[in-house]
Give the backbone structure.
Amino acid sequence: MSRGGRKASIPPGDWQPPERLVITESECSVFFVEEKGQRSKVYDCTKLQVRAGIRQWLARSFARATGPTSGVKRVRAAESLWGAVQIFAGYLAKVDPPVLQPAHVTAAQIKESLLAVPLGSRKTHVDRMRAIFRADKELSTEARSAILYGRRPGYESKVQPYSHDEYQELMTAVRHDIRVARDRIYEGRELLSAYRRGELGLPNRRNHIEKAGRVLDILDRTGDLPRRVTPSAPQGGIPAWVWALGGAHDLVSRLTLTRTETAAFGLMLVDLTSENFGTIGEWPAAHFRPDGDLGGPALALVDGVKPRRGPSLEFMVTPLEDLPPSLADVLQTEDHDKHLFRSPLRVYQLLLELTEFVRRHSGGTHAICYPNVRAQGGLAWAHGTSRNNLATWALGHGFRPAKKDGNGQVPVSGSPDEVSRDVNEQAVASADMGLSVNVHRLRRTVLERGGKPVAHTRETFHNYLRTSRPAVERGRVVMREALEMEVAKARAVQEIPVLTDEFLARAAEDPERAAADVGLDKETFARLISGEQDAVLVGCTDPENSPVTGPGKPCGASFLDECLRCENARALPRQLPVQIETHRRLKHLQQDLDPRLWSHRHAESFARLSNLLGQYTVAERANARERVTTAERSLVDDLINGRLDLR
């Protein structure tokens, strides 16, 4: 148990949970308390300037949306929903005639209330309205559908992922801090071991190394620095000779991580796992190793909690994997730290190793924990992550801290002992500095790089991508390339080369040159011209090298469908009457068949024939239409009915 805490106890037998929803003749309020019990707030619904029936309905909906079974676990989240309730109530207060009951709220009024919200905030407001009224049963079906369904307003998120250069700049600083912390603590532990082995010499006033080893020994055994009780420091002050060794903070940091270094580990694990920064801050030190640490695929399962997912989904297990042996061999380099910073398991194990001192003396169970050095009263212990830790780390590297609120202050969370007094002053002074350290931007970057959802639904992941400028731009490039490729393919298969009468006249004079012009050898060209290789609607240049049945086999393609898209197809003027008759029959079938059936069977062939006939003049088509014979009509009849494909 950490200092300042209290023992767990069972409530008295007559204890009753506080009433969350209070509706009387004179009162209408909702009581919200955070899941951890740290903060609470009463929302007074009597301030809503609407009729009593609407006021009570809004109170019931808000209480249900912020109840224990919802994903709203903090006052900050409840405040956002309360703001949506106030906006909606403000609109209903102006409706004339006044709305008396929720059943009287119309779908048109719902849509008007949403349109009244500024465009930049409309998408967020719609999401909050859906969270409030998702389980509502008092609205009409039409009004409820106006809230819950329909396309949400599009917008571009204010939190955009880091660019490649920004990401590299941030993670270089993170990796540097982890290396420095590891090397410093390893050196401190080696100094402590040397002192306990008696290798630092005899104690005397000038043997500062021995003094440092003695202080580390006391610190490691007792969890506190040497202290001396004086009238001015009845709780025990740190002696001057200890301060002369570098100060309390420097001595303690030789055995464990500092407050800001835990923030660096949190950022590193966000990068490797795509988990939330706050979720990682609550990871326990205890974990399960399915491999038993016996040389198999290294894996650790860590319990995590994400309250916003709701009671049924908030508890989850995060797998932390090491590099597989095959990948480790590929990435083998002289710099072994590259393996460390590619492996979530190794970073997690290093974190546990460097914070073991704090857990041993504080009795804590968190993976991320650190000491707070106090001049009097001994060391204080803390765990988890906070915005102040992150802001202090950012300022220490010349970065801008996380997004500030309207007063220019960095949002503060954690106990007073965790808060650095000068963080906000430095943050305001550094408003014009460079890169901003934002855990939401980092997680967006990692999620887009990984391309799969982590600790949220696929729909939420898609919402991330829809509101991300780089993802939208990449999507447009991919869509443009895919569409251009499909258009090129369509043009290639639809535009069957047509050998015109003029070309055939030249071919009669010089067959070799004509064959070379169409990319065929003389013998193949001769068979094509003679009609030996006709395939009803077109001529075929290579029946035994079909893209449908493969090389070396007789072509088994459908004369009506596959031949019109085949790369071996060539059209000759003598085939024009059959093509026109087939086109006419397909057009008549469009009137007789079910539209979906015709589209499935004949739409593509009809479009290809239309494109092919468009390469002839009107006169040529009219002349060919008059030359259609009875035998050709019979042939087309067999073609349309599929009798030719059965041979």
